[in-house]
Structure formats: structure tokens, C-alpha cells
Design a protein that fits this description.
Length: 496
């Protein structure tokens, strides 16, 4: 099979790209998804309490507004319903190829086509590829000694076992990041006991979640401009927060003051407060937006354990001071295996170059989207595209519009676009220079950084700047060569 466009990944980014391609009258594409349903991270993250900490009106596509969001911040089930509705409303089901697990993507210079191979399906060829597999697709179990010796039940936050009944169980939770602080308040409601194993306390800010009244939904539906205005208001509110969250600036102290006040108001016990006080600049790790985590920790059946974990034992978790904490189940809220230097799947570009090798000292791309030597390939959530203060979907929408423009140009003019190495280099030198002044590079460890401290994850600026740089494709930044075969199928036959 030869396609105009192969989209790899059927989550938010892949679906957004598919919608925009269809709207540009490009219909010869397919979405390759290893799962059996669309939804990506929101299909996978169904743990109790799973929700988005960005307001829904901003955490949605502007081209698919939803007047019916039930709350300011939506839960994962509602977000998944929104995604599924987009799939149906925009007629995307026929474009999905489920159960396709990509194991390689290789450029063929003779045919000017990408060959996509799967571990379980025949290969596919495509003129353009959209890598939309997402950075948080693979779960990470920590490298703790004795992991395999534990005889109780193990559950990862991103692969929740809904058949397991937590009622009256002794539960241990490892990890206190964005997932952990959402799970703990739910578990304390049902479990006999919950022990929360914290390695590093994070900065938490209050989050107030209001139900949206039916009248407001009706107004949004009847007057869509009001919804656009509400989105704009959230957008600019978040932009103003960037001054303290993205840059390590005097305003970062203001964010920290809000965090300390939140802690002081919710935690009266000075020792517990001390245990929960972060030792790094706010924003360096992802901010935790929660108003129910600290109260949950103080429930009678909950204990915070701050002694480092020494190892897992058959019946529980042993901490370094020698205590063994028995647990019927361990919840691993320990995050994801993020390919900070590698690529989501092996990718081979022009002249046999291997992207994983080129990225071994840190992933780099041009405007996070294109990589020199990998023509007609576009990344969503590529290197240095992460927002620290705003909605990932605002960034994603800008990426999608850019790559759809570039792809439709390449298809219409029968060309192959490859970003120029010098433009990519200059772009990255600038990004890395600007990152030095950000909170993420201010001296904590996080999934944003490689072990060497290289930041290939975050964009050092306002969302306005990120979106602005993707407003239009500057074709001077790309080399253009002819797409040789006029008949795609003939091209493939010629290489067989
Ligand atoms: O994972 P994390 P997450 N021993 O990597 C701890 C998105 N998200 O799933 O900080 C003990 O942030 C680790 O400790 P430390 C969002 O982008 C979004 O919570 O490394 N502890 C940390 O506490 C987020 O950034 C939403 O010292 C160990 C935790 O595990 C991303 O997902 C909601 C350990 C991992 O935290 C990941 O969040 C949820 C060990 N060996 C998630 N290894 C929204 O609302 C790790 N830890 C949009």
C-alpha cells in the first residue's frame, strides 16, 4: 500500500493531524495505532482521579470546541469521550489501522517514499510521515532492587487494573508527581491504609474545579464566540504565569510564595510541612495543581514515607532505615519511559543515517518539527516543544497546522522537503542558549532533562512565541527536490 501520508499514533496529535488533512482535501492517509481504540494517553491513563490540570476550554482544539465540558478541569473519561466524538464527527474511523505496531521507518531515496514496517503487519509506503506517537506512551517501572521479588499486586498509574478491588487493602504508592497526587486522594477513600513513598516533594498550587452550569453551556452553544473568548481568557492567563514558571525570575518567588501559602493553609503539622517543602525552584519539575492531595495525606489511614526505598521485598517495601512496609498492592506512579535521546521507533533517513544515533547526545529538530536528513517527516511533540505553563494542545494545534501546510505543499508541487542542516543548527543553538535562563535548567532532576542535564523537552518561551514561529512554513529553510515517480505505485514496484 502506498499512501500520501502515514500518521503514526492515534492520540490527540494524530487525530488533530487527520482532521486538518481532511479539511485540506487530503484523503489518502491512514492512522497507524498499536492499540485497539483511539485516544492515546487518555485511553491509557484511567487511574482513579485522572484529570487534566489545564482548563478544558484550553485543553481542546480550537477547531473542535466543546460547549459541554462539565467542569473547569475535566476528568480523563470526559476527555476520552471528547476525543472519540472528534473521531466520529470528523469521520476518521475508516482511516484508522488498529493493531499496527510500528517497528521501523526507513527512507528510500530511489522512490522518495518512506517505508513503514510493523511487527505484525505487511509494510506500508508513504510520501510523508507524521510521527504522532507522543512522549508519554511507554510506562516506566523504577529500577528498584527486588522489583521482581514482590509477591503482591503491582499496578502502574498508566495501565490501571480496574478489576482490582482496593477496598480494605494495604496500599503503597510510589511517586508523587502529577499522577501520584491525583491518585492518592481517591485511594484513601477506599483503602484500609495508604503509604505514600515520596522521593522529592514537588511544588503544589491550589486548583479549584467548578461545575459548568447548563445555562453557561447553552450560551456557549448558541454564541460560539463566547467560548472563543473564554479560551482566549484562559490562554492569556496562562501566558502571564510563564513569567514566573518558565523563566527563573523574581516572579518565580511569587509562585513559590503561593505554593508555600497553600502548604501552610492545608498542612498544620510543622514536621509534615517540612517534609513536603520542595528544595528546588518552582517550575523546575512540573507544578502540581491540586487542592486535595495535602488533605488526603493527613487522613488517619494515610502516611507519608520519606525514607528512601532500599528494595522491594516479597511482602512490601523496605526503606533504608530497615523498616519493611507490608502492602497488598503497590501503585507505581513513577512516570514514563521518555525517549529523551532516542526516538519512539527506529528511524532511518537519507544515506542510511539513523536518528537514534544523531540524537544520542540530545534530540534536536528544527522548530521541534523537522529533522535534517529525514525529508517529508514531521514530529508532533518533537524536541523542545513542551509547554511548562500552558496547554499542550495549543502547541499541538500549531504543529499540526504547520505540518499539514508543508505536506500539502509537497503533494501539490510533487516535491520532497528536507530542512537545511544550518537552519536547524542555528535554531537549536538559540533554543539551548535561551533554556539556560529557565526554571527547568535551574538545578533539579526531572524527566525534562537527560542524565547529562541536556534539555531536549521544553520550549523556552511564551506559547505565543512557539505558535508564532509555526504560523507559516518558510520554504527557504528547506531544500526542495523533485518527487521523482509521478506514479506512486510504479515507484514501489520499481524497488521490489
Ligand atoms: O510522572 P513523573 P507522572 N523511587 O515522572 C517518582 C503528565 N501528566 O506520571 O521526583 C522513588 O512526573 C519520582 O520521584 P522524583 C505530565 O506531563 C499530566 O506523575 O524523581 N520514587 C516522581 O515523584 C507529567 O509531568 C497530567 O524524585 C520514584 C514520580 O515517581 C507527566 O505526565 C496528569 C522512583 C514520577 O513523576 C508524568 O507525570 C498526570 C524511585 N526509584 C500526568 N522513580 C495532567 O493533568 C520515580 N519516582 C495533564
Amino acid at each position: 500500500m502506498t499512501l500520501d501520508v502515514a500518521i503514526i499514533g492515534g492520540g490527540f496529535a494524530g487525530i488533530g493531524a487527520a482532521i486538518r488533512l481532511k479539511q485540506k482535501q487530503i484523503h489518502d492517509f491512514a492512522l497507524f495505532e498499536r492499540g485497539t481504540e483511539p485516544g492515546g494517553t487518555w485511553r491509557d491513563n484511567t487511574y482513579p482521579g485522572a484529570a487534566c490540570d489545564i482548563p478544558s476550554r484550553l485543553y481542546s482544539y480550537s477547531f473542535a470546541p466543546n460547549p459541554d465540558w462539565s467542569h473547569t478541569y475535566s476528568g480523563s473519561a470526559e476527555i476520552l469521550r471528547y476525543i472519540e466524538r472528534m473521531v466520529d464527527d470528523f469521520g476518521l474511523r475508516p482511516f484508522f489501522r488498529f493493531g499496527h505496531n510500528v517497528d521501523g521507518v526507513v527512507w528510500n531515496e530511489q522512490t522518495s517514499l518512506w517505508e513503514i514496517t510493523f511487527d505484525n503487519q505487511p509494510p506500508v509506503h508513504a510520501r510523508a510521515v507524521v510521527m504522532a506517537s507522543g512522549p508519554l506512551a511507554n510506562v516506566s517501572f523504577p529500577a528498584i532492587r527486588g522489583l521482581e521479588t514482590y509477591e503482591g499486586h503491582k499496578i502502574h498509574s498508566a495501565r490501571w487494573d480496574h478489576d482490582y478491588d482496593f477496598t480494605d487493602k494495604k496500599v503503597a504508592v510510589i511517586g508523587t508527581g502529577a499522577s501520584g497526587v491525583q491518585i492518592v486522594p481517591e485511594l484513601v477513600k477506599v483503602a484500609k491504609s495508604v503509604k505514600v513513598f515520596q522521593r522529592t516533594p514537588g511544588w503544589a498550587l491550589p486548583r479549584t474545579n467548578f461545575a459548568t452550569r447548563q445555562r453557561t453551556k447553552d450560551i456557549y452553544r448558541r454564541f460560539p464566540q463566547t467560548q472563543t473568548l473564554a479560551r482566549q481568557a484562559w490562554f492569556w492567563g496562562h501566558e502571564s504565569v510563564a513569567l514566573g514558571v518558565v523563566w527563573n525570575s523574581p516572579l518565580t518567588r511569587v509562585v513559590e510564595a503561593v505554593g508555600k501559602l497553600h502548604l501552610r493553609r492545608q498542612v498544620k503539622d510543622p514536621w509534615l510541612r517540612r517534609q513536603l517543602t520542595p528544595g528546588f525552584r518552582a517550575g523546575c519539575k512540573r507544578l502540581l495543581m491540586t487542592s486535595d492531595y495535602y488533605p488526603a495525606l493527613q487522613k488517619d489511614n494515610c502516611t507519608l514515607v520519606t525514607w528512601p526505598i532500599a528494595r522491594l521485598a516479597p511482602r512490601g517495601i523496605r526503606t533504608v532505615e530497615g523498616i519493611e512496609h507490608h502492602a497488598d498492592v503497590i501503585v507505581f506512579a513513577t512516570g514514563f519511559d521518555v525517549s529523551k535521546t532516542g526516538t519512539p521507533v527506529p528511524i532511518t533517513g537519507r544515506g542510511g543515517r539513523v536518528l537514534a544515533d544523531e540524537w544520542s547526545t540530545g534530540a534536536k529538530a528544527y522548530k521541534s518539527i523537522s529533522v535534517s536528513g529525514y525529508p517529508n517527516m514531521y514530529f508532533t511533540f518533537g524536541p523542545n516543544s513542551g509547554p511548562g505553563h500552558s496547554s499542550a494542545l495549543v502547541y499541538m494545534e500549531a504543529q499540526i497546522d504547520y505540518l499539514v501546510d508543508a505536506i500539502s505543499h509537497a503533494l501539490a508541487h510533487d516535491v520532497v522537503l528536507d530542512v537545511r542542516a544550518d537552519r536547524q543548527r542555528a535554531y537549536n543553538e538559540n533554543i539551548q542558549r535561551r533554556l539556560q535562563k529557565t526554571t527547568w535548567n535551574s538545578g533539579c532532576s526531572s524527566w525534562y532533562l537527560t542524565e547529562d542535564g541536556f534539555n531536549a523537552t521544553m520550549f523556552p518561551g511564551f506559547a505565543t512565541q512557539y505558535v508564532g514561529q509555526l504560523k507559516s512554513v518558510d520554504y527557504d529553510d528547506y531544500t526542495t527536490s523533485a518527487y521523482r515517480p509521478s506514479d506512486k505505485d510504479a515507484a514501489v514496484t520499481a524497488t521490489v
